[in-house]
Amino acid sequence: MKHEEKKFPEGFLWGGATAANQLEGAYQEGGKGLNTPDVLPGGKVRLQVLKDPGFDFELDPEKYTYPNHEAIDFYHRYKEDIALFAEMGFKTFRMSISWSRIFPKGDELVPNEEGLAFYDRVFDELLKYKIEPVVTISHYELPVHLAKEYGGWRSRELVTFFERYATALFNRYKNKVKYWMTFNEINSSLHMPILGLGFAIQKEEDQYQPTFQAYHHQFVASARAVQLCHEIIPGAQIGCMIVYLPTYSVDSNPENVLYALKEEQLFNYFCGDVQVRGEYPAFINRYFREHGIKLEIEEGDLELLKENTVDYIAFSYYMSRTEKKDKTPEEVGQGNILGGIKNVFLNASDWGWEIDPTGLQISLNQLYDRYQKPLFVVENGLGAYDKVEEDGSINDDYRIDYLREHIKAMGEAIEDGVELMGYTPWGCIDLVSASTGEMSKRYGFIYVDKQDDGSGTLERKKKKSFFWFKDVIATNGENL
């Protein structure tokens, strides 16, 4: 039997991914309120702040810089940027909506018309070029007022506010947006609750109880959003979104294999199981007992979760994770912000993130085997230092190499039988890094002249990868 070439399916959604708080800027325009990323400082100090139990969500411009305030000014330049996406041939554009543009404080009864109108203009521009918007409802942000006055997702009241916000979006954009996601990388809050849950763990409190109670509130809010989306926009698809790291044991010692399994269950599958299967997984019961976690679950919550599961699983894939039961601080990989030890078989990026294309094929197989639902790789990419040559060119062959190998891995997974909807590499245009607040950590096909110190003209330049990815899309993944 002749071996057939690996084919990406017809209608495969090639495109790119961004987040409102990392590219829009205009943080006080159009009636927008402060959101949580607006008060996160720039530079490597951001990682310290994200883990600071005393963080108070206040601005301190004398001490810090705030690159998200201007970001790359997509708010005023979206037409130019979308034209560049269209030139690359994007079939889809994954973006998010800023909650505080629609409800500036988060607990208002009536949405902000200026904010709604801005996204109307963005969607109209995308649809003009036949680019399908894929919209994340909450991408690492919520109005600062909800963080400070309600304690973020600690409070059950946020379910009501999120429902009101999602309802406003579905009603307004029901004729423009067919693909939705609820919470970005929802499982990452196990490590950094400030980003996803809108609160810091206080020094005197146990980290487990508030985090998992907040998770329950988000699960309920997500299920309610799924229910509303299906009611208001028949035929729309709404998914969950997780960060996925296949977890390897450092060796074949059963103790290390078991440890890696338990880490993988908690991080990779807990949130997915609730949103995709509609129920808390069996393995979490022991974890709750051992950590003294007792959830407040209201009447009807479990039924709501069961009856309103997501249509597809979106996930980010940047690296794998290698684990060992008893590891020393010296063994921990430099860039592995989510734990793990250095994998001697892998190279790493400029920021220490290990590069493992085969891990993407493994991830796709694991997720599809577990859930049997369509998958969507909505983030993947290489953060790197880019150099502008004297002639203005940016020769990012390292990015092309990275993406080529990951696209090959997706092709292998499709041949394995995985149902894959699309691929939107992260930061298709350079933007502010979520974890470090830097501009120098660049992912894009499009270079933006903005530096870590805030200087720059904001001019857009096409990198070498721009033309390469254009050809990949034009040939539906055949020319790599």
From TrEMBL:
Pfam families: Glyco_hydro_1 (PF00232). Coiled coil: none annotated. The active site is at E379 (nucleophile). The keyword Hydrolase applies. GO terms for biological process: carbohydrate catabolic process. GO terms for molecular function: beta-glucosidase activity. The keyword Transferase does not apply. One of its GO terms (cellular component) is cytosol. Keywords: Glycosidase, Hydrolase. Gene3D superfamilies: Glycosidases. Belongs to the glycosyl hydrolase 1 family. This is 6-phospho-beta-glucosidase.
